Amino acid sequence: MQKLTAEWVKKAEGDYRVALVLSRGSEPFHDQICFHCQQCGEKYLKALLQELGLPVPRTHGLVALRNLLLEHHPSLANLRRGLEFLSRFAVGPRYPMFQAKKRQAVSAVRWANRVREECRTLLGVRSPRGKSN
Fold first, then answer.
1. Which of 67, 83, 111, 114 could form a disulfide with 62 if both were Cys (CB 3.0 to 4.6 A apart)?
2. Is 79 part of any domain?
3. Rounded to 5 degrees, what angle do the CA atoms 118, 120, 121 make?
4. What is the CA radius of gyration of the chain?
């Protein structure tokens, strides 16, 4: 794995871990959970682009990133619905007048994990022993 790809993966894992910690806590940090789940997906897709030697665009659009990868990784086609869902959390949670619901946060964690697992598989990244998430 390229060094820069590994850095994308490390950043993505950080976002995923933050989302998990917040989702397991007693505080209702639904906006933050959703935002970090979107960021996790975005960074994993960018890791795939980096590893393939393709340009990594400055976009938060997860479906657009997926579309750039489909030729090389057709298995990403199955993630369209989840990527569309997660994309809505790229900007909204950072501003007033946006309130994510608990059910959205739960779904965001679930979709982030699906994206994460697929990307890790494609990158050949294994989870540490005893840790599935």
1. 83
2. yes
3. 65
4. 14
- Assign residue 27 a region (left: φ > 0; alpha: ψ between -120 and 50; beta: otherwise): beta
With vertex at residue 107, the alpha carbon angle to CA 52 and CA 128, rounded to the nearest 5 degrees, is: 50
Confidence tier at 8 by pLDDT (50, 70, 90): very high
Residue 109 lies in a domain: yes
Domain with 53, as residue range(s), is 3-123
b/e map 33-46, b = 16+ CB within 10 Å: bbbbbbbbbbbbbb
Decide if 46 contacts 66 (C-beta within 8 A).
no
Q: Is the pLDDT of residue 117 over 60?
A: yes
Q: How many domains does the chain have?
A: 1
Within 10 angstroms of residue 126's Cβ, the number of other Cβ atoms is 9
- CATH, residue 45: 1.20.120.330
Say what the pTM is: 0.93
Residue 132: inside a domain: no
Q: How many CB atoms lie within 10 A of CB 106?
A: 14
